[in-house]
Design a protein that fits this description.
about 500 residues, alpha/beta, eight-stranded parallel β-sheet, binds NADP nicotinamide-adenine-dinucleotide phosphate
Length: about 500
């Protein structure tokens, strides 16, 4: 079950939104009465309530908005109990002074906005003595391992316990607590209205992560990186699990660069079955694995970790995805999809350039690399064993295939292109690895010039599909994944479009 936190300043808005949530299928709503501008009229809020509720009146010291005295606050909580609210939230330090009455269930809560204390079990034991129906322990995650400790505590609890971490690193436990027996998790009305750091929206918890279907058998996958919040991988992998009806969930897991190995070790306790890997961990993960294929070893970077016979294996699906996208583009343009001896100009010298450059060279292409930062570009070119040209001279390079591996043109900087239109020769295939937006300025200008084009969506979906197959053993629903990504890109553009904001 998902408990949706609702905080409005006026009774009428609170009741209207509560009704709207019920109509959309909400099963439990937390009424955050500390948000109300006037003293909350509990009787009015509870009368004709369309779903069961948790009544919560959070103090300022617990990051709530309650403006009255503590006596008034406790009186409100007692009113909620007398009024027959299904649940009332009682902080651990006041729970002893509020007696059980009627059918109202007592959620005894503990919040820590700074850390996840080491003595979690002691805290739990103290809370257990306060006559709880549900224990709620919510702490700040300062490392991925904090989630692991909270989830283990939830799993070991003999009183129904909702336990998860806050912050961007807490997403893991907000979603996985159901796998460890938590009776519900909390979500906000929408992302813009989060009530606690890192709180997910109801739509995300319900539709993206399918919290209500998570159980002990749910297989866990994730993408590791830093930052990770903008990653589209959870969107398309979870969509694919949903489409195929698999009992699996895919989570964004933020791991700071200096904590990679210890975090992967701690996450073993959650039996994560596979990872996608993104910046800055593509090189670092190779120190963790038992095996890797030859191409990954040569490249020195992996974007996928998966388990075989209890061993961690590393591979790189970016490289074959890029090659197949380019070959498909050549085929569609009426060319032979042969890369040997084709002249390719790669823009950029980051992780994408390394994977694409390596794969193209393996296929016999004649590669020249250019990069804004000269030293970085020269160093990658020499490592790959290809030509280097300066960023200023890139327009004079003649090539059969142009590959943009810079982030220029990526949302929101959609009016930028890394290559002038008049530099393009009309027969060159132009491949932009940027996948949001799909139709970058570079691709639009290339098409205007008559060049065949390949978008980053083609590569992104292919690399994810290969991962999906390694993770699950099933054929990936490629079209469905691509459609999901395109819809999400379009929705993101609508949200920030000046027409919509009036700006
Ligand atoms: P990265 O390691 O951070 O490298 C970024 C590259 O972009 C560097 O070469 C950087 O040049 C260049 N760059 C950034 N801003 C620039 C600017 N204003 N002008 C010129 N060059 C600029 O990132 P990455 O992992 O390689 O990713 C690069 C792009 O590839 C991203 O757009 C990413 O979305 C895309 N990508 C796509 C897929 C896919 O499946 N479609 C997969 C991986 C990556 P400096 O060295 O001078 O900073």
């Amino acid at each position: 079950m998902i408990c949706i936190s609702l905080g409005r300043t006026r009774h009428s808005s609170m009741m209207e939104e509560h009704k709207a949530l019920a109509e959309k299928g909400a099963e439990l709503v937390e009424l955050r009465v500390d948000f109300m501008r006037k003293r909350p009229d509990i009787g009015r809020l509870l009368k004709d309530r369309p779903t069961p509720v948790v009544v919560t009146c959070r103090r300022k010291m617990d990051r709530g908005r309650w403006f009255g005295t503590e006596e008034q606050r406790l009186a409100i909580l007692r009113e909620a109990i007398i009024g027959g609210a299904e649940y009332v939230d009682l902080e651990v330090d006041v729970a002893g002074s509020i007696r059980r009455y009627g059918k109202t269930k007592r959620i005894i809560s503990y919040h820590n906005f700074d850390e996840t204390p080491l003595e979690l079990f002691d805290i739990y034991q103290r809370m257990r003595k306060l006559d709880p129906d549900v224990i709620k322990i919510v702490t700040m995650a300062n490392s991925p391992g904090d989630n692991v400790r909270v989830l283990e505590m939830v799993g070991a609890a003999d009183v129904p316990t909702v336990g998860f971490c806050m912050g961007e690193m807490g997403t893991l436990s907000r979603v996985l607590c159901g796998r460890y027996g938590a009776p519900f998790t909390y979500a906000s009305f929408s992302r813009e209205r989060e009530m606690a750091p890192g709180q997910l929206s109801w739509a995300e918890v319900r539709n993206l992560f399918r919290f209500d279907q998570i159980n002990q058998q749910t297989v866990v996958f994730g993408v590791i990186g830093d930052p990770i919040a903008q990653s589209k991988s959870p969107l398309i992998h979870n969509a694919a699990y949903r489409k195929l009806g698999l009992n699996a969930v895919y989570l964004p897991i933020r791991i700071p660069q200096d904590r990679l190995l210890e975090s992967l070790k701690e996450l073993e306790r959650l039996q994560v079955a596979g990872y996608s890997v993104t910046i800055p961990h593509k090189e670092g993960v190779l120190q963790y694995v038992d095996r890797m294929d030859e191409a990954t070893d040569l490249m020195g970077a992996a974007n996928t970790l998966f388990k075989r016979d209890g061993q961690w294996c590393a591979t790189n699906t970016d490289a074959p995805a890029a090659i197949s996208a380019i070959q498909d583009g050549l085929r569609k343009a009426g060319n032979i999809p042969e890369l040997a001896a084709r002249k390719v100009l790669i823009l950029g010298a980051g992780g994408a350039a390394r994977a694409v450059g390596h794969a193209l060279l393996q296929h016999g292409a004649v590669v020249t690399l250019t990069n804004r930062s000269r030293d970085r570009g020269k160093s990658l070119a020499s490592e790959l064993g290809c030509q280097f040209t300066s960023w200023e001279n890139r327009g004079s390079e003649i090539c059969d295939v142009l590959v943009n591996c810079t982030s220029v043109g990526m949302h929101p900087n959609v009016d930028e292109s890394p290559f002038e239109q008049h530099w393009l020769s009309d027969s060159a295939l132009v491949f932009d690895t940027v996948y949001n937006p799909e139709q970058t300025l570079l691709l639009k200008q290339a098409r205007d010039r008559g060049c065949p084009t390949v978008s980053g969506v083609e590569m992104f979906i292919r690399q994810a599909a290969l991962q999906f197959e390694l993770f699950t053993g099933y054929e990936a629903p490629v079209e469905y994944m691509a459609e999901t990504l395109r819809r999400s890109n379009a929705a993101a553009r609508t949200i920030v479009s000046p027409d919509q904001t009036g700006g």
